[in-house]
Structures
1.
Amino acid sequence: MSHGSQTLAVSWPYGSLPTPTLSGATAIYADVLPGVNLLVSATPTGVSDVVEVTDAAAAANPDLATLTFPVSGNGLTVSADSLGNLSAVDASGDAVFTAAAPQMWDSAGQTAAAAPAGDAGQAATPTVPAAATGPIAGDAQAVMAVTASAGTMSLTPVASVLAGSSVVYPVFIDPTWNSGQSNSNPSWSDVYETLDSSGDVTGYGHTW
C-alpha cells in the first residue's frame, strides 16, 4: 500500500507464494500451507488478507499457532494498542494506515443458512467462499491477540475457534489494513475503534 511517498508492505512468512488465481478483486493463493489458502483483496480503503484454513488437518499445522508477518514501511512505524488495533504512523505521529484488531471466525452460521447441497468436497479450482467476507450470526468468532515490533506483526489465533469438534470449516483469519487518510469516508476499522472505545458494543462483525 502507498500514500504519497509512504509505503507499507506485509509479507507472507512461509516461503514464496504461488501464482494466484484471480476472482474479481481477490487474488487466491492456493495451498500456501497444506490445506491453507491466502485470499488477498483490494478494498475501497485498503487491502484485506484473509487466511482460509480448509479443514482440521490444516488447522493442526504448528505454523498456524502464531502467524508472524514481516512488515516494512518507508518512513512508518507500526505499533499495536492495548486492544490489538494496529497503526502505521509517520514521523509526526499521524496514522497513515490502520488495521482493526484482527478477527477470526468459522463457517457455522454460513453452513446453517445455506440451502442443502450435494458433496461439498474441495473444489478443483479455488474460489472465494461466501463466508470469507466476514462473520455472520451463528459463526464461532474471536478477536485475536496481536503484537507489533520492529519489522514484524504477530497474530495468535484462538485455539477454540481454529480447531475442535464444534468448529465448522473453513476457518478464516483476517488482518485487514486501511488507509488512515480517508477521514471523510470512514473505514470498518475506524468504526470498530470508535465503537469499541465507547463501550457501546459487545461483539464485532464485518457489516459496514
2.
Amino acid sequence: MRGNLGGILLMALLLAAGPTVRAQQEQGEGSLLSDASVAVTFNAERGKVVDSGCGCFWLLGPGADFGLNFHHGIGAAAAIYEEQTVNLSSGESLNKISYLFGPRYTWSPSTRLGGALRSGTIFGEALFGGVHGYNGAFPSGGSVASSATAFALQAGGGFDLRVKSGLGLRLVEADYVYSQLPNNGSGAQNDFRIASGVSWHFR
C-alpha cells in the first residue's frame, strides 16, 4: 500500500510539474529567436560615372531582405535587390543584382517613449556578398564585357514601424554601398542607397 501511495504521489508530482517544465522549455526555446522579418522595398542608389566631374545617375528597382533577431538584438540579415538605369551620360544602360548576407543589430526603443518610437525598431547592419552587372559596359584589360560579377558590401541601417498584426512599414533605410565592378578606372564604386517599403514580423 505504501509503495502504491508513493507511486501515486510521484505520478501526481510529475503531472503537476509537467506544464511548468514544458513552459520553461518553450520559454527557453523561444528566447533564442525573438523576431523574424521580411521586408519588400523600393530602392534608389546614387552612382557615378568614373573619371567625370559628376556623371551621377540613379539606379532604381525593387528589393527584399530577410532578418533574424536573436538574443539582445544580435541577429543576421540577407538582402537581394535588382536595380537599373537608362540615363548614363554615355547613353549606355546598366542593370545589376546584388546579393548580400551579414550581421544585423536591432534595437527596440524603451516602452517609456511615446508615439511612433514605441512600436518601432531601429537596425544597423554590415552585409557582404556579390553584385552581378549586366546590359552595360564593363571595361577591363583592353576589352569591354556586357556583364561582370564582383565583390560588394553594404553598411547602414533603417527604421521599421510596426502597424498591426506583424505588418509594418520600413519608413527609411540608408546604406553605403561598395562594389568592385570593372570600370576602366579604380575598379571600385562608392554609392549611396536609400529605400522604403513594407515589412512583416513573425514573432
3.
Amino acid sequence: MDVLGLVKPAPIDFRRLFEASPNPYLVLEPNAPRFTIVAVNDAYLAATGTEREAILGRGLFEVFPDNPDDTGASGVSDLCTSLERVLRERTPDVMGVQKYDIPAPGGGFEVRYWSPVNTPVETSAGDIAYIIHRVEDVTEFIVARERLNAASTAKIERVKAHADRMEAEVLKGGAELKAANRELKLVC
C-alpha cells in the first residue's frame, strides 16, 4: 500500500504478456542483416512449428524461405515488399492473404495461407527500431473455400451433363416424332 492506503499495482511484465498473447507475433529488427528475428511469441511458434531458440537471431527469410518445390512461390518477395513499404512509409502495412508454405518438421514444406500485418515501432528519435509482424493462419478457411468451390463446380458439371442428356433425348424424341409424322402422311 502507498501512503494514501491505496494498493499499488504490480509492475507489468510486458515480455510475459507478449509471449502469452493468443495472436502470432514476431518482432523483426530491420537493420543488417535484414529482418532479423529478435522476439517471437508462443502463438507464432505453435503456428509455425518452430522453437524459440532455433529462430531467434536469424534472418526471417533464412528461417522461412520460399518452398523450392513451388515454382510460383512469391511469399518471400511479397513479404519483403511489405516490410520495405513499412520502412519507407513508416505506417502499418496490411497484406492480403498470402500463400506462404512453411518448413515441415519431417522435411519438405507444408502449404499454409496467412493474413499478415506489419507495423513499425519507432524510437523516440523517430527511427524504426523494430517491425512487429503479426499473422493469422487462415489455411483452414482457404482449404474449406477451395473444397466448396470444387464441390460447386462438380455439381454444376453434373447438372450440365444431365441437361445435355435431356436435350439429346428431347432432340431424339423430336426426330422420331417427325419421322412418325412423315410415315403417317404417306399412309393417309
4.
Amino acid sequence: MLPRYTTILSFVAVMVCLPIGLAPANAQWSDSARPASRHLVQTSDAVVYTQPPIGSGVLFPSSWWSQGGTVYGQYVWDDFTLSSAQSITEIRWEGGYDPAKAGAGGPVQDFTLAIHASIPGGSEPDVVNPPLATYQTAGKAGETAAGTFDGTTLYDYHYALPAAFPAAAGQKYWVLIAAMQGGEPDWGLAVGSGGDGQHYRKIAAPGSVRYARVSGDAAFSLLGRPLASYNVYLPVVRR
C-alpha cells in the first residue's frame, strides 16, 4: 500500500496536466464567432477610452498631400481624459474618403499619429511645443471596410504603439490622426460620440493657417492597461 502523501501528489500531478480549455489572451475572433461589435478584437489589453462611430457619412477632413507638402493639409485633434493612470498600447479609429472628390487623393499612404499636451486651462492642444509622442504607421494601418453610410464608405484602422504611452489620471491629452495621400487630400475621420462634442482643427493653405474649435466628436478608441503601482512597506522602529 502506497503512503498517503504519495497518493495526494499523484492526484495533484493529474490535475496539473488537465487542459483548462481557455483561449490565449491574444486570440483573434473569427467572423462567425466574434462578438456583436465589429470593432472588437480580443487582446490582452482593454479599451480605456472610446468615442465610437455613430454611423454617419459626415467626415472631418484630416489629411495632407505628400507632393504639395503639409501647407495643403487639414488636421484634426480630439481630446481624452482618463479616470485612472493607463499605459496606452494601441490607437483605433474610423474614417473614409470624401465621395464628392471622386478619389482625387488616392489611397492612404501613411498616417501620422501624435499625442499632445493641453495648453493651460485645457481648451486646446499645445501645438506650439512638440507633441509628447509621435508615430508613423508606415502604411494603411490595417484599413478594413466597415460599411457604407449616406453614400460614404467608412473604414476601420488600428496601430499598436511601439512603446506604451503613460497617460496620467485626470489630465487632458489630445490625439492627432492625419492621413498622407499622393493626390489632393480627401480622407477624413468619422463622426463619433461620447466626448465633449467638439474637436480642434487646423486648416493650412499657402500663406494662411487657421486653427479653431469645431463641433463634433471624432471616432477613435484607445487600448491599454493600468500603470503598475507598488506599495512600499517600511520597517516599524520601536523605541
